[in-house]
Amino acid sequence: MTEGGSGPGGERVRVDRSEGYGERLLGLLLDRAHEMPPQLIAPLVAEEVARMGGRDVTILLQDYEQMFLVPLPGPGLVVGAPEPVEDSPAGEAFLRRALVEVAEGDSVRMYLPLLDGSDQIGVMVVTLDVVDDDDRRLLRRLSALVADMIVTKDAYTDLFFQARRRAPMSVAAEIQWSLLPPLSMTTPMVEVAGILEPAYAVAGDSFDYALNDTTLHVAMIDAMGHGLDAATMATVAIGAYRHTRRADTELSEVYAFMDRAIAEQFGLDHFVTAQMMTLDVVTGRLRWVNAGHPAPLLIRNRVVAGRLDSPTTLPVGFGGRRPEITERALRRGDRVLCFTDGLFEEHRAGGETFGEEQLIEWTNRVLSRRTEVRAVVRGLSHVLKERRGGVTSDDATMFMIEWRGDTPDVLPAITDLPDLS
């Protein structure tokens, strides 16, 4: 027992700070992981799970196409076949960001989402003979710690990248994936999610975002051409965007800086279509500029309510006039779907393009079956690719924003500590 803060009457309150079982188990894992090389993370996790009576640990990571959850190899882990994201207990835990339990004879197989902050990287699977609420709470916290460890170690190893890659990847795609922020982010104020196709050959499409205080910044770009030329242009465009964003530059000036960067580096015969947005996550005020990009769709009450049309200027690199900033007040729960033209300009057999009408129709169908933003984006991208005949001759990228409008500056409640009053 150690003295803590003051009670309501000003008296000193003594707080129990002795180490409990759960703290000791998680603390040991954290203490040992600091300087542990990436290849020993798997056996370390398996060892810690065994301390609480668990066994048969599997760590599943999302593959780059977002079709499967693939096993991470390593000593102490059970390595089986990849699990489909659709129609599997692991996929259900992944898509719902929730614990899933499956009875297997006299034991229980537990599927826990690996959440780094709010980004989903995969699922941890553990078998226990008996499960109670203490086990569930401890395993939820353990899986969160494992996710943080994987993300941290991933910055200086290829092990996790190699596990996630299920097909050869082009150099251009390697560049694009290295540019991307986390594919999803969830906060009480706003949620975002994105996806790129073809995952192993994407070149010119990219997106970027940052939540700075109460402003969400978003950019989506589509560099002309294919291969390394397109990937190089996309790299310069995103780099220029981040440079100006971090300097708190006005949206119209962001365009001008990106425009000069592309023109000076590649000449006037190269261009990048772009769309830059800011969203005030407190008021719901959306502001954007459009540089030759398809207009986003506004989704309200789980259906497409219309296009967010706006004046456009020339693509980045062509020296267009200063773009006009368009504003729109969102309602709580509104979603904005941004996409590149590869999503609806694909030519199907017979020569017809897929078209925006079909894009809207299938968006509404997916929205009727899915609720979570990331699940909607993933499901829509895959069904659109299927409807195009599985063909993706051009990059097809999608990014969705949901404005939730909750208070941004209230810390989450802690409900399992003793009352100190």
Automatic annotation (TrEMBL):
Main enzyme class: hydrolase
Enzyme Commission identifier(s): 3.1.3.16
SMART domains the UniProt entry points to: PP2C_SIG
InterPro entries (alphabetical): Bact_Sigma-Reg (IPR052016), GAF-like_dom_sf (IPR029016), PPM-type-like_dom_sf (IPR036457), PPM-type_phosphatase-like_dom (IPR001932)
Annotated ranges, domain PPM-type phosphatase: 187-403
Hydrolase listed as a keyword: yes
Domain of life assignment: Bacteria
Keywords: Hydrolase
Protein name per Swiss-Prot or TrEMBL: PP2C family protein-serine/threonine phosphatase
Single GO term (MF): protein serine/threonine phosphatase activity
One Pfam family matching this protein: SpoIIE
